[in-house]
Amino acid sequence: MELELLAKDDKSGGKGCPSVYVSDTGEFVVQGAALNDTELTALQNPLPGETAVRIAPDIVLAAVEHYRRRQE
User: Fold this and answer.
1) What is the Cα–Cα distance from 64 to 30, expressed in whole angstroms?
2) Alpha-carbon distance 5 to 62, whole Å?
């Protein structure tokens, strides 16, 4: 899988997360801090192999904006 970085938290120091990528299949990939076991129980119907991560709304919005611009 090839990934293109769309947006990263400026406060991560350029190395950490959260980040949003687009894959060569056109899907978004989100990198972030994993939820703990207690927080995971709030998810509705997670399937085997699925997980969830935290990411600030401004990073998601920046990724969407970058994605839209690259489509033009």
Assistant:
1) 12
2) 11
Which H or E run includes 58? helix 57-71
Residue extents of the structural domains in the chain:
3-71
pTM for the model stands at 0.82
**Close Cβ partners of 8 (under 8 Å, ≥ 6 residues apart):** 14, 17, 18, 19, 20, 59
Residues 29, 66: Cα–Cα separation, whole Å: 14
Q: What tokens were used for 65?
A: 């904006």
16-70 pLDDT tens trace: 789 999 999 999 999 999 999 999 999 999 999 999 999 999 999 999 999 999 8
